[in-house]
Write a structure and sequence with these properties.
This protein has 271 residues and is of the alpha+beta class. It has helices at residues 9-12, 88-100, 175-187, 205-211, 225-239, 261-268; strands at 19-23, 33-37, 41-46, 51-56, 81-82, 113-115, 120-125, 128-133, 142-144, 151-152, 168-172, 193-197, 216-219, 244-247. The chain starts with 8 loop residues before the first helix and ends with a helix.
Length: 271
């Protein structure tokens, strides 16, 4: 259930772009409502109610609404340029785009590339590149150029290759949510917590097989109808194999990447 707009939107509209604030919501002792103004939308999330809201800014169109004709080609772009070597205005435009998704390059791995002809941000993974549409007009928001079926936080970044086997893993559906959560897990050195991305709401059998080495699997999908259904279906499938499962409910109309570090940690407390 989403928060009614009249309870928070007027607060968000008083903020500058990129700003957020805490406010009282109903009758709590301390301000539990976080309200923000991002480049393309206003948003809110109440820690007490565990509900959120979002209103898009219809007049804002940061980038071209139409993707280039070759945007969805499954071959790597020939005009790939390392983002560090790209002109300043290109880096600023991409950073602004990421901020509109509640992301920054800080959360992403090194080795980012950019394709102007495809309007794609290329993110390296151990298996190959992911391509994120920068126009917000493509029919394929994400492309897996190497045919990846899932992403998984490399356990060796924390305590060694086998340190988290038999413990807990959190599965998200979107790469941006994955990278933000993985960054937080590493930064806070959350022992015994691994992070996976199912690249959609239907975990691939190869990912399911990987999840079976953990004692508890938590599905932390987006706060929409598809995310709710996918979380429930995924949890039931894993539970049928004898593994303890948890569904972490993202506030309605928000993704895990839309939450700040404190809010993400609060959700992780359930596991």
């Amino acid at each position: 259930m989403a928060l009614p707009n009249h309870e928070w939107l007027h607060i968000a509209q008083t903020l500058g772009v990129g700003r957020r604030t805490r406010a009282y919501h109903l009758h709590e002792r301390t301000p539990a409502l976080t309200v923000g103004n991002d480049a393309t939308h206003y948003w809110a999330y109440c820690q007490r109610c565990k509900q959120g809201g979002r209103v898009d800014k219809e007049h804002v169109n940061m980038l071209e609404a139409t993707a280039p004709a070759e945007s969805n080609l499954m071959t790597l772009p020939e005009d790939m340029v390392a983002l560090d070597a790209a002109p300043m205005h290109v880096r600023e435009q991409i950073e602004k785009f990421l901020q509109s998704k509640n992301m920054t390059t800080m959360y992403l791995p090194p080795g980012l590339h950019h394709s102007k002809r495809r309007a794609r941000l290329l993110i390296p993974t151990p298996s190959g590149y992911l391509g994120r549409d920068l126009s917000d007009g493509s029919t394929a928001k994400w492309l897996t150029y190497a045919g990846q079926h899932f992403l998984f936080l490399n356990d060796s970044r924390l305590d060694g290759p086998a340190a988290h086997r038999g413990r807990r893993v959190v599965v998200v559906e979107d790469p941006f949510s994955y990278y933000k959560l993985a960054w937080l897990v590493c930064r806070k050195a959350l022992r015994g917590v691994a992070v996976a991305c199912s690249l959609g709401t239907r975990p691939h059998p190869k990912l399911v097989a990987h999840l079976l080495q953990y004692n508890r699997v938590a599905f932390f999908y987006d706060g929409d109808a598809a995310g709710r259904k996918g979380s429930r279906t995924g949890a039931q499938a894993i539970a049928s194999l004898g593994i303890d499962t948890v569904e972490i409910e993202t506030p309605w109309d928000l993704d895990p990447k839309d939450l700040n570090s404190a809010e993400l940690l609060a959700h992780l407390e359930t596991i």
